[in-house]
Amino acid sequence: MPDTRISDATREKVRQVWPAILEGLAAGRLVRDVLREHGVSNDVLRLYKSESPQARAEWDEARERSADAFMDEAIEAAYNCELDPAHARMRVDTLKWAARIRNPRLYGDKAQLDVNVRTVDLTRIIEAANARLLASQAGRVLEHESLKALL
Description:
Helix content: over 70%
Strand content: under 5%
CATH topology of the domain at 8-107: Arc Repressor Mutant, subunit A
Order of helices and strands: HHHHHHHH
Oligomer: single chain
Largest sheet: none
CATH architecture of the domain at 8-107: Orthogonal Bundle
């Protein structure tokens, strides 16, 4: 099994360029291009994030912020009258999709419902129902003599 740790020198190199990597990601640049620019491979990035929960949290935050950049770019493409309409539509749809993936809480299709839960005490309702049940099970009182003869 190959060694799944990165060397101290590589870790230090990634640590030095980490803010620039996060900035590029948050700006909506392709991860591939940002990593290539800083000389970091995908494998090294994955290992660096797995070794540090803080790095993972910073990465996730930068990805969420990139959704804003994607939506800004989609709006810009929609306003750009010089683009071919079909190309503009495809670009806007792709950017909206990327924003939805990067930050589903903000740009997702599903509506988020906040439901206020109230507690209802059913004790009185159940007691009244039980009283009605007992009353219905009690013997009937016939008030007329003519009805008694029928029975």
